[in-house]
Structure formats: structure tokens, C-alpha cells
Amino acid sequence: MLSSLLPSGTSTPNLGRHSPSPTNASEPQSTAQPGPVEHTPPTPHRRKRIVVAMTGATGSILGIKVLTALRRLNIETHLVISKWAEATIKYETDYHPRNVRALSDYVHGINDMAAPVSSGSFKADGMIVVPCSMKALAAINSGFCEDLISRTADVMLKERRKLVLVARETPLSDIHLRNMLSVSQAGAIIFPPVPAFYIKASSVDELVDQSVGRMLDLFDLDTADFARWEGWKKET
Fold first, then answer.
1. Is 57 annotated as belonging to a binding site?
2. Where is the composition biased (Polar residues) (predicted)?
3. 56 assigned ligand-binding residue
4. Residue 81 backbone zone (phi > 0: left; psi -120 to 50: alpha; other: beta)
5. 106 in Cβ contact with 30 (< 8 Å)
6. Using CA atoms, how far apart are residues 81 and 191, in angstroms rounded to an integer?
7. Which of 19-28, 33-42, 79-88 is predicted with the least confidence, judged by mean pLDDT?
8. Residues 153 and 140 sit within 8 Å (Cβ to Cβ)
9. pLDDT value of residue 36
10. Which residues of 27-53 are buried (b: 16+ CB within 10 A; e: fewer)?
11. Is 214 annotated as a binding residue?
12. Is the distance from CB of 180 to CB of 167 less than 8 angstroms?
């Protein structure tokens, strides 16, 4: 009877060292019925999961470095690259788009609106659009989900998840500024990749690493690739 009260796969608990034998009818049988044993299934462990989107704005190396850092940190990545991002990658870097895709765990087509990342039921820990064009910014701000990048960003906002937009444009028009303010009020974080001259970088790579490190700080991830500010250093 006890086994019928237990969840499937749960063994009958030990009732004591002197539990009556069911074959000895002369011994009195206990009439107490133990309550059902609570069985809490173990919580499956999941790697932290970040969606990375790359648009056609200049600064494709930022997206590449983000993917590289996330791979090193063992973060599950889902990549979406626009058509113009592919063109910019070829023009600005020595990478080919297929090499960039190889840096991610999963790659989704820009027009694949049935991709897992397009649904709020898909558990993601955040999204970064790097670099983020003004076209993508406008689409995200207006909720105009014309492709998988703007749709996934829309999902992040509605599900109250972390959304970082690495906006690449200068100077900024009133339209750009209004879009930035509006999407920031909706919950996104605007991150212009402004170089930190105080690190006294000796190369562009050092400036890029500092920006990427600060971007991933927003997801509580430490790349350990740049020097953090610790106050003025006295000359020796």
C-alpha cells in the first residue's frame, strides 16, 4: 500500500529495524499509514546563455571579440548576423563570416523568425547587439520586428531581460538621441564604444579589449583582459 502512495521511482522508506515481516500473521500489523514521501527533482544545470547580434555598422571587430571572450568564458552563444554585417566583416577585418559563425555555439538565420531565440519561452540570460546600427536601433525602439535581430531584442525587452545595444554612430541626430532615450526607458542599455584613454593603450586591440570587457561587465562576466581603474598612480 505504501508503494502506491509514493511518486514513481521512489523507494519505500525504512520503517525501522524491527519492521514486521508480512509473512508472520501472528504478529500485529501496524495500522499507521506514513505520509507520501516528497520527491524534489534535481534542477538541471544550464550554462549561461547570451544572444549576440551583429549588424552592418562599423566596428565588427567588437562583435568578434565579444564572441571570442564568451567562448573562453564557457558561455553558450546564439549568433545572428545581418547581410550587411557579413559585408562589413569582410571589409574591416581579416575574418570571413564563416569563421565568425564558428565562434558561436548556435547560429540562426537573420530571417528565421521560428528560431528558438524569437520566443520568450526560450530561456536566455541576455542579448548584446554589437555593433548596433541606427537602423537596428530604430527597429528595436519602434517594436518593428522585421528580422530576427529586432524580434529577439523585442523579446528581451518584454521578458525584462538584459539588452545591451553597442550603438555605433557619430555625430548623433535628434532622431538617434530620441530612439536611444526611448529604448533606454524601455529597459535597454545603450553602450557607445567610447575608447578609454586613461588606460594609455599601446594598440587599437587594447582599446577594443577594454570596451569588450566593459560590455561583458554588464552581464556580470569578467574577461580579465583589461586594466581596471584603481585611482591615480604616482610617478616613480
1. yes
2. 20-33
3. yes
4. beta
5. no
6. 19
7. 19-28
8. yes
9. 61
10. eeeeeeeeeeeeeeeeeeeeebbbbbb
11. yes
12. yes
**Contact predicate 117/80, CB 8 Å:** yes
- On whether 198 is known to bind a ligand per the annotation, the reply is yes
- What DSSP string runs through 53-120? EE-SSS-HHHHHHHHHHHHHTT-EEEEEE-HHHHHHHHHHSS--HHHHHTTSSEEE-TT-TTSGGGST
In tens, the pLDDT along 5-35 reads 444 444 444 434 444 444 444 444 545 555 5
> Which three cell numbers, joined as nine digits, stand for 87?
559585408
Q: Is 98 marked as binding a ligand? A: no
Report residue 128 as a C-alpha cell. 548584446
Residue 73 identity (one-letter amino acid): L
CA distance 211 to 234: 25
CA distance 140 to 176: 12
Q: In which residue are the cell numbers 502506491 written?
A: 4
